[in-house]
Backbone:
């Protein structure tokens, strides 16, 4: 009598059911196999649960745009284009912000550039390549003091507008890094209206952020860009432009730090 263990049966059934799943579910399943990851390991790379990975692979629930972008980073060329496309990004969008990839389409290798996969670890010192990280530009706005920003306390759930490429050493935590736009002028002359700020949502410990520019969130005010400043036992959100009023930061008034600003992008005058 032929016996199949419970684990073997589950594995066989898992593979045999791939054909009945949506294409995106099968793609995620096959990518996990190529990476030799368990569902738990892939979930850890994407800052989500193994259960969420299971739902994707079974076609029960489709991932968010942020997840698709990170899956594309993990997949590499050529499968990255499929996942980035599911995130709503066209090839020309990616090539516009990562022009080096144009060459990759024709040569199949990049001698001078290497795409960093989000969460893939620290590059070795032996690699002389310039390593790049693809960062999602969110359809989210952080406002100046006195104005109302978007109500998006969880940046990883925000919709994605496009992507930006940056050197890997500019983004210490690629999986937690994203971009959002700024509205208003309370941070002039550093950050102007319309600038794009790149933020790390893993850096929220106030004890390490004194004097740093941060993204704060309030249930009524939404997202605000400001500088966190501590005075004795009082923490304040301080504008660079003294024409604007500072804001007291406390648990009682509802403000919460959700990210640190790493750097920003603005058009030349």
Residues:
């Amino acid at each position: 009598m032929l016996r199949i263990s419970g684990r073997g049966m589950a594995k066989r059934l898992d593979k045999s059911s791939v054909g009945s799943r949506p294409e995106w579910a099968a793609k995620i399943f096959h990518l996990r196999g190529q990476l030799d990851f368990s569902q738990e390991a892939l979930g850890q790379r994407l800052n989500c649960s193994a259960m969420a990975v299971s739902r994707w692979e079974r076609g029960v629930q489709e991932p968010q745009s942020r997840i698709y972008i990170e899956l594309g980073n993990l997949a590499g060329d050529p499968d990255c284009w499929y996942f980035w496309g599911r995130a709503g990004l066209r090839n020309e969008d990616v090539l516009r912000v990562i022009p080096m990839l144009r060459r990759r389409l024709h040569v199949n290798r990049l001698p001078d550039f290497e795409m960093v996969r989000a969460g893939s670890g620290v590059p070795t010192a032996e690699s002389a390549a310039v390593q790049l990280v693809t960062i999602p530009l969110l359809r989210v706005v952080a406002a100046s003091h006195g104005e109302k920003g978007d109500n998006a306390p969880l940046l990883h759930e925000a919709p994605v507008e496009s992507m930006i490429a940056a050197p890997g050493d500019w983004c210490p935590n690629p999986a937690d890094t994203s971009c959002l736009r700024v509205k208003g002028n309370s941070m002039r002359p550093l950050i102007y209206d319309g600038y794009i700020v790149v933020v790390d949502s893993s850096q929220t410990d106030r004890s390490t952020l004194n004097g740093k520019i941060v993204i704060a969130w309030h249930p009524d005010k939404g997202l605000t860009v400001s500088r966190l400043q501590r005075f004795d036992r009082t923490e304040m959100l301080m504008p660079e432009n003294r024409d604007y009023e500072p804001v007291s930061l406390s648990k009682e008034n509802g403000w919460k730090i959700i990210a640190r600003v790493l750097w920003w992008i603005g058009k030349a005058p």
